[in-house]
Each structure stands twice: as structure tokens, then as C-alpha cells.
Amino acid sequence: PLQRIWCLFEVYHTILLSRPGAPFQGLFLCTATGVLQEGCAGTDVAVRVAERARDLDTRSAGASKEADLQMIHALIEQMEGGFDAM
């Protein structure tokens, strides 16, 4: 999970939209047993998600289409803070 550039880009924008006062419910991390934030997953799942999030490197994320990868990289580089902010 969280290894594809499109997914990471969408997660980032979801987080931006989820800021206080925004009319958006936010990101729900769903597992086979339910929504993580609602306590419906084991601690092992929560730990794996946290470890993956900690080790994220957007620069090394992949894409099935090179054009998508280049487009998203260009968009990230145009954002304030670029890859480091993401």
C-alpha cells in the first residue's frame, strides 16, 4: 500500500481538504475488518500503516504510465515545498 504516485498524490490532497473548517470528511483507512480510525482493525494493522507512512518517499513511488509519473512529479515540484512538503 501507498507505493503508487497517484495514490499518494490523492492522499495528500485529501489531507489538505480535511483541514479544520473544510466541508470534507477526510481519509478513511479501510481494512477487511472495518475502518481503522473507528478501531475496527488490529494493532498490527495500525502499526504497519504507521510504519509505511513514516517511511514514505514520494520520489520513489511508481506509476503504470511514465507520462502519469512525469505529470505528477511536475505538479509536486510546482507546489510550495515540493517533494519535501509532501
Give an overview in words.
This protein is mainly alpha-helical and 86 residues long. Helix content is 49%, strand content 5%. It has 4 helices and 2 strands. Strands 1-2 form a two-stranded antiparallel ribbon.
Radius of gyration (Å):
14 Å
Strand content: under 5%
List the total number of helices: 4
The best one-word shape is globular
Largest sheet: 2 strands, antiparallel
Task: Give me some keywords for this one.
mainly alpha; two-stranded antiparallel ribbon; 4 helices; globular
In short:
The chain is mainly alpha-helical. 49% of the residues lie in helices and 5% in strands. The chain is built from 4 helices and 2 strands.
Structural topology:
Elements: H1 5-17, E1 30-31, E2 34-35, H2 43-54, H3 66-78, H4 82-85
Antiparallel strand pairs: 1-2
